[in-house]
Amino acid sequence: MYFGEGEITVLDPYLPHLEPLRLRRADAVSGTVRAGTDAYPLRVRADGTPAPSRLSATWWVGDGVFLLEYSRYSPRRSAMVTHRAFTFHLGTELPAFPVPSGFARRLLLEPMQNNLSIRALHRKELKMGELVLPFGGRPRDQLVDPAFLIAKDNQGRVSRAGTPAFDRVLELIADAVNGTPAEVTEFVMDAAAIYHRVVPLDQKWPEYSAEDE
Known about the structure:
Helices cover 18% and strands 36% of the residues. By secondary structure, it is an alpha+beta fold. A 4-stranded antiparallel β-sheet has the order 4-5-6-7, with no helix packed on it. A 4-stranded antiparallel β-sheet has the order 8-9-10-11, with helices on one face. Strands 1-2-3 form a 3-stranded antiparallel β-sheet, with no helix packed on it. Helix 2 crosses helix 3. The two termini are 30 Å apart. The model has no long low-confidence stretch (mean pLDDT 95).
């Protein structure tokens, strides 16, 4: 976030929007400023019409509260679905940077964390791919196992390791980051090994949805 005179500009690569979000205090209606822009992935409806994702921002000026909502088109539901939402308190700052190890550890062990993933946007094809390692659904000693990887293509279709569809998504991600499929896989599995070493053995995770979006 960039703070100017009576305005906020948002650039959020995690919620991959096409244009910067600019919210101006002068545009407030009843103390609230709203703005939005299209975002990736750029999906397609069954009739062939475009269905871009959407990032919406709400700024409650008096309270200093800022909300970002990221929605994607779900081909399975034929509707826009909220995929992420984050609330920020604009007067709050990190205690230090880099953050203290105890602070980072609390985030790492957040019980809602039920997967590790890498998501990339191919700058030429303008398609998104995701490589995901869900945590649940198997014995703990199999947590760090690439056989349980899944992939999601630009339309949110899920494929499993060892299938042609999975390999296509993995190749797209690798090309987007100038790497190889093996390097991308290793990146996720190395992160899983770190997580496995520090997370309690009795950790319970919410179920990860592995169905098509």
